[in-house]
């Protein structure tokens, strides 16, 4: 994909702000479904965390056909399709919530996440049009900051409807409102569907998939994305239960759900700051520092009590903030023709958000919530190893 002129690039960036911000808001609300289902249906940790198994497994199930279709119809049309599918999932979820059918809830989440997979693959591929690693990293990090803005607003809204007084009367309203907003955004992308040229798929493009998968750099990057998403989703989801514990903050479900917005606020602030810091600090150095910070805060959360542990757990969001854009930037192949396939492979690795929370939940049911947090702790070691071992492709990325 050839870099667009500045006017087109600015318009693309503005459109993507809605995608990243809306996606963050929806993901944060989905995280609150875990404590809600525990309260309303009496599920244990492993059962409730199967919400993430349904929501994130689509990255593994649908990434290949979605990439094939996205390459055929073009990124802008693919994003439009993804937004429409997400809107449909929101409407179906409203029906499922009304019926209190857990299996139906999981099915609708899978539909919703299929739309998110469209956005991840096509949206991330579009960002590669803004230039090489040094130019792309700050802008991609800024997009991720707006994603975090959505995740900050999400718990503030979602906690009231899912965990507060409105939970019994109107638990579906956030999803109905979300469906309308997603359809409006889909209309905006459809209106700009020809902003970028539609690429041509070819046998040569797909013949390079095997070679791309075999590259050690890509394998390591997929492992790092798997670990990062798994750790982030696990911490963000279990933070509500952690903050409700009498030996930490002893908060009510509603108050704990709202406090999780501080976790995402840290991620938002870190991404804005990270976009600026990347002008002075190398990509690898910043990624490794974030891993060390996250692991240190997690150790404090697992060993301290009272407000110290609660603050430490929420502060991990600050360290998570820059991990995804930095891993993604370091993983990008040098050849533009491989960008779509690389984006697909990295999005498939997001399935870590389905696996790591369930593994943590199974462990939590056996040994307790706090000791089970060792699982996301191990994820930071995987990400750190990737950051240390990955050689930058361009000057200034070290």
Mean pLDDT: 81
By DSSP (H or I, 4+ residues per run), the number of helices equals 19
Structural class call reads mainly alpha
Order of helices and strands: HHHHHHHHHHHHHHHHHHH
Molecular structure report:
With 398 residues, the protein is mainly alpha-helical. The protein has one domain: MFS general substrate transporter like domains (Growth Hormone, Chain: A, Up-down Bundle), CATH 1.20.1250.20. It has 19 helices and no strands. Helix 1 (6-31) packs antiparallel against helix 7 (102-127), helix 5 (58-73) runs antiparallel to helix 16 and helix 8 (133-162) runs antiparallel to helix 15. The longest helix has 30 residues, at 133-162. The chain is globular, with a radius of gyration of 20 Å.
What's the helix and strand layout?
Layout: H1 6-31, H2 33-41, H3 45-48, H4 50-56, H5 58-73, H6 75-99, H7 102-127, H8 133-162, H9 173-191, H10 203-214, H11 216-244, H12 253-277, H13 283-303, H14 306-320, H15 323-331, H16 339-348, H17 352-367, H18 369-372, H19 374-389
Helix pairs in contact: 1-7, 1-8, 1-9, 4-7, 4-17, 5-6, 5-7, 5-16, 6-7, 6-9, 7-16, 8-12, 8-15, 11-12, 11-14, 11-15, 11-16, 11-17, 11-19, 12-14, 13-14, 13-15, 13-19
Membrane topology: Multi-pass membrane protein
Keywords: Cell membrane, Membrane, Transmembrane, Transmembrane helix
Organism: Sphingomonas abietis
């Amino acid at each position: 994909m050839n870099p667009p002129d500045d006017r087109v690039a600015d318009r693309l960036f503005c459109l993507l702000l809605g995608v990243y911000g809306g996606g963050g808001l929806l993901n944060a609300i989905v995280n609150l479904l875990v404590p809600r289902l525990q309260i309303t249906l009496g599920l244990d940790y492993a059962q409730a965390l199967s919400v993430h198994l349904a929501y994130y497994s689509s990255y593994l199930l649908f990434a290949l056909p979605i990439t094939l279709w996205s390459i055929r119809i073009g990124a802008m049309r693919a994003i439009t399709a993804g937004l429409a599918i997400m809107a449909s999932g929101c409407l179906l979820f409203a029906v499922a919530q009304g019926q209190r059918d857990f299996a139906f809830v999981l099915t609708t989440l899978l539909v919703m996440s299929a739309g998110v997979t469209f956005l991840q693959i096509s949206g991330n591929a579009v960002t590669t049009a803004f230039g090489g690693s040094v130019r792309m990293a700050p802008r991609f990090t800024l997009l991720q900051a707006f994603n975090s803005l959505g995740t900050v607003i999400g718990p503030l809204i979602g906690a009231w409807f899912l965990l507060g007084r409105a939970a019994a009367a109107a638990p579906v309203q956030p999803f109905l409102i979300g469906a309308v907003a997603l359809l409006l955004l889909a209309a905006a992308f459809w209106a700009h569907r020809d902003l970028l040229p539609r690429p041509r798929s070819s046998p040569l493009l797909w013949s390079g998939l095997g070679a791309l998968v075999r590259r050690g750099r890509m394998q390591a990057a997929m492992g790092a994305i798997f670990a990062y998403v798994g750790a982030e989703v696990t911490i963000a989801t279990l933070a509500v239960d952690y903050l409700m514990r009498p030996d930490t903050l002893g908060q009510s479900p509603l108050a704990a759900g709202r406090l999780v917005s501080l976790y995402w606020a840290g991620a938002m602030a870190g991404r804005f700051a990270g976009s600026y810091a990347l002008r002075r600090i190398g990509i690898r150095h910043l990624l490794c520092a974030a891993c060390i910070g996250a692991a240190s805060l997690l150790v404090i959360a697992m060993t301290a009590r009272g407000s110290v542990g609660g603050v430490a757990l929420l502060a991990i969001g600050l360290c998570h903030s820059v991990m995804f854009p930095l891993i993604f930037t370091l993983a990008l192949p040098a050849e533009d023709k491989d960008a779509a396939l690389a984006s697909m492979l990295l999005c498939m690795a997001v399935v870590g958000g389905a696996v790591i929370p369930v593994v943590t939940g199974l462990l939590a049911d056996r040994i307790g919530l706090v000791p089970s947090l060792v699982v996301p702790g191990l994820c930071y070691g995987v990400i750190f190893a990737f950051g240390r071992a990955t050689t930058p492709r361009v000057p200034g990325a070290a």
